[in-house]
Each structure stands twice: as C-alpha cells, then as structure tokens.
Amino acid sequence: MSKRKVCVVVASRANYGRIKSVLKAVRARNDLDLQIIASASALLYRFGKVVEVMEADGYAPHARVNVVLEGDTPSTMAKSTGIAITELATVFDLLKPDIVLTVADRYETLATAVAASYMNIAVAHTQGGELTGSIDESVRHAITKLAHLHFVATDQSRANVLQMGEAPDTVFMTGCPAIDAIADIDYRMSPEILVRSGGVGTDIDLGKPFLLVLQHPVTTEYEQTQAHIRATIGAISRLAMPTIWLWPNVDAGTDTISHELRSLRERAQPTWLRMHRNFAVEDYARLMNAAACIVGNSSSALREGAFLGTPAVNIGSRQANRERGPNVIDVPPDSDAIEAAIRCQLDHGRYPRSALFGDGLAGERIAEYLATVDLRTAQKAFHVYK
Fold first, then answer.
1. Average pLDDT score, the chain
2. Are 236 and 211 in contact (CB under 8 A)?
3. Residue 382 falls within a domain, yes or no?
4. Residues 118 and 249 in one domain
5. Domain housing 17
6. Which candidate in 81, 92, 171, 291 could, as Cys together with 212 as Cys, close a disulfide (CB 3.0–4.6 Å)?
7. Residue 37: enclosing H or E segment and its boundaries?
8. Each residue of 162-209: pLDDT tens digit?
9. Residues 216 and 317 grouped into a single domain
10. How much of the chain exceeds pLDDT 70, in percent?
11. CA 101, CA 93: separation in Å to the nearest integer?
12. DSSP H helices in the chain
C-alpha cells in the first residue's frame, strides 16, 4: 500500500512553532510521506529566516517559494497572496500530495488553501473556528470553507466550525500543536539563548525579572500603526525594565513598527532593551516561561502563555474575542493603560497553568487522522443541522 503524501506549508516563525510537532509525528509514521514547503517570511532574513531553524531541526524543505512583495501596504499584501497562489500551484503540481496541511489564518495560509482546493487536493486546516480581530478573522473562516479536514484546538472552536456548515465527521478536536512544542521541554535557561539567536542591545540577566514584548501590525487598522506602537514604546520606556523585544511579522504596517523600534534604539539608546528577530521554538518557550510579563498582541501570549501561566498584557483588537485564560489583561493601545496593566501583572505574578488550548498531544492526533481518515471527493457540501 502506498504512503499518503502530506504536504505542509511553513510560511512564518509562528507557523513553524504551531506545526513542528505535526512534522515530527508525520515523519515518524510508516504510512505517511512528509513533504515540506518553506515560503513567505520563513525565507527572509529580516524576519529571522526560519527556514534555517527548520533545517537545523532536521526538516529540510522539498521546495522554497518566495512570494513576499516589498512595499509594506495592504496592496502588496493582497498581491503577495496572488503570487503565493500561483507559485504554490506549480509546486503542488510537481509534488502531487494527497493532502495539503495549512496552518491558522495568514495570507499564505489562504493562498495554500485556494491553490490546493482548485487542484482537487484534500485541504487540512489547523486552528479553525477561533475568533479574533483584524483580517485574520476573515481569512481563517474563508479557509474553513475551503478545507476538507479541520483540526481544531478547543471545544468552542469545534462548535464554531460546525456552525459554519462543516460536516461533524470532518471536524476533529485535537488541541493546538503549538502546545506540543513546549509541553515537555527543559525550561532551564542559560545566557547562550540570547547569544545564539543573534540579538542586539543590552545584555539581559535572565535570572532577574524581564519583559518579553512582541507587537504586530493590525492590518484592518493600518493607518493607526504608528500610534499603536508609539503607545507601547511609551509605556515600556517609562517602566525602563529589562526588556527583550521581538521583531514584528510581515503584515502590512511592519515597516512602520520596525522604523519606530530602530528610532527608539538609536535616539534613546536605552540600557534596558535587547532586540531579536527570532528564537528557536523551544528557546521562545523558555523565555515566555521565565518572563515577568508578556506584552503586545501576539496570540502566543494567550495560547502558550495560558499553558505556562505567564502574566500577559494584550494590546488592542488583534486578539479580540479569542478564548483566553486568566493570565491575560486586555488594554487599548494607550500608554497609560498599558503601563498600568503591566504593573498590575508584575504585582500579581504567576497564574495557574491552563490546558485551554491543548495537552501536548495534538501532533500525534493530527498525524493519526491524516493517515486514517477517509479522503472524500473534492466536492464539499454545506451541512444543514436540523
């Protein structure tokens, strides 16, 4: 019996962190043949060149697909989506996968689903049914309607996918694979964590309280990007607490955030700041676990942060309506509100760990379904509940 070919598209650092355990589980099976495509910001130096981290972990891609247009606008983001559809279709034609697995809610994820579904390839989707803000909300639900298999992280997410007309026997509650990558690691740290990832700025004593900051642009509030990041910079600057700040993702508005961060470093030359483009998945988990507070608008503060019990301050609308544990305080993009929330979290300290988004076994569950589920014809039908 021939192996099922499972093609996974890795398009960003977050992408990789949320699919690494699935790559491991698929590769370990004798009835599945793993194919990997590295694309979009996963190939770009200024976003950490995650493909090099993948290769160091033993996951060399079968193909590399460059799709990101320079320009940092909603227009270039839309055009990059179009390029990704064209280029991925060519690669799918060469690799001929039986299933294409796509992750979450980014424009590359949408391009993957569009190309594969038009080519009558079964589409599997992780993290569908989650509710958030920004364009990610629309993209995630659009992918759900293109996908044939749904691997959801929570019971509420499963209910949301079913409400969208998906057949119950195609929606599987697996948990989020992002939790797998951090569930059983050794959380002890050494200064080499900061050295090996090539950051710049002040040496941070990881044995003392520090902030971990990651703020992405909100595509649907593109014109307000500068005001948003300046509010965060203002709050963090007043606190002047040792801070590790990660570079934003590739979404429209990223150049504005990057410019403001560079200006902060050059103008103020803060002695409390260290900046990094990227960390290995496990190292990022160690930093999240050790941080006194996670600040910004990354879903990792809500998802992995809940599992770790790390205090988090979530800024603005990017994660609006996403399920969250008790570790999160939500604030508007206002310096005073951000600073007050951080101080509140510092006073509170650690929270109990939460398995809201998974128990660390999602990758194995997903691989089992990929190997054994009945692959239907490409034609989907809206499931009507009576």
1. 94
2. yes
3. no
4. no
5. 4-183+360-372
6. 291
7. strand 32-39
8. 999 999 999 999 999 999 989 989 999 887 899 888 889 999 999 999
9. yes
10. 99
11. 15
12. 13-17, 20-27, 50-56, 74-95, 107-118, 134-146, 155-163, 177-183, 192-196, 225-239, 254-268, 281-290, 303-308, 335-348, 362-372
